[in-house]
Task: structure prediction
Amino acid sequence: QVQLVESGGGLVQAGGSLRLSCAASARFFSSYVMGWFRQAPGKEREFVAAISWSGDSTYYADSVKGRFTIARDNAKNTVYLQMNSLKLEDTAVYYCAAKISGSVSADDATYRYWGQGTQVTVSS
Result:
């Protein structure tokens, strides 16, 4: 069983920055594709970013490209999401997820393990 625990969420003003972390209790973490998704109130969950097992390949939603950066440290079993230039519309619960095979993907159905989420609120 893989456990994913997100941290780093909070309240930030528009234009500010936050860094989310996701710690995994997975023996084979370094072989998983990791992704970040988010869900705003009243909206469906949406893809944010994904990173390959090696970190060589990344993939971003158009809405966050150039503002967010996904990274991983396989020695620490941790994936990060650096969020800069935050906007009001970035307000959501952010989830990390693990995909045990294949390549980076925006399809949440291909991710097997999910964290509980961390709230990010951007204020004006």
